[in-house]
Amino acid sequence: MKRFDFRIILGLLLIVGGVLAAAQSMGYLENATDYFWGGTFALAGLAFLSMLFSGNWWAAFPGFILLGLGTMRFLPTVLEDLEGAVFLGSVAVSFWYVYFTDRERRWWAIIPGGVLTALSLLIMASSYFEEFSGAIVLGGIGLTFFVVYLTSTVERWWAIIPGGVLLTLAGMTIASTRFDGFQTSGFFFLGLSFTFLLVALLAGMKWAYWPALALGVMGALGIISLLNIAGYLWAVALIAAGGFIIIRFFTQRSM
User: Fold this and answer.
1) Measuring CA to CA, how many Å separate 181 from each of 65, 103, 215, 219?
2) Contact 38/17 with Cβ under 8 angstroms?
3) pLDDT given at position 134
């Protein structure tokens, strides 16, 4: 006796889908194809997710993605703008599942999972909180790198740097819309300075104090420039440096 072939199921689904599409086109049914394919995708997704119980972690990707596609079909018209967020969110859930089922070996899944989560939130924010959309995506990705750092504070200290840079950029997008005359470069350099300071303090990298100091000085000068006294400060700094060199010269000769 021949075993039942999966191609028969696929063929039947296509036939039913075609019949429903024709009936909808002739005005006999409304949204029939959306409900049909939404239910089909959802059932297929559940079928793949059932394979997770057998240890097939890869099935999380088609499983959650198909569930997301099915959910998109059932969204009401007023929520059509969120379809992209639902799809990206379903892919993000796939990566988060992969990570949480083996956090030691699959830490890499945090990065695509966090990025896709941030993009999903970006789509939602652009519909309701447009002015914060940039901060949400940059801040979300930045926090993702800090989560990577927390998975192994010794081996993955490097994640502090992209995390700090992205959080700084997220803060800049908010501050630039809230404060008149916001000093972008000064804030950016101060954010980088704080990032390297975290590298020095949290990861024990002593070399990071030097870029933290240099960037902090640049940031402070950038912000001070708003007060129109940067020229005076440079003059004082140059005079002090020149005076120090001359005093050192004469004191060494007199010894």
Assistant:
1) 45, 45, 21, 15
2) no
3) 80
Cα separation, 207 vs 2, whole angstroms: 70
Distance CA 71, CA 82 (A): 11
Report d(CA 197, CA 206) in Å as an integer: 9
Give the span between the Cα atoms of 23 and 250, in whole angstroms.
Answer: 100
Mean pLDDT, all residues of the chain: 80
Residue 90, pLDDT score: 93
Domain boundaries, the chain: 1-74
Query: Which ranges of the chain have pLDDT less than 50?
Result: 1
- Report pLDDT for 36: 73
Residue-level pLDDT at 141: 93
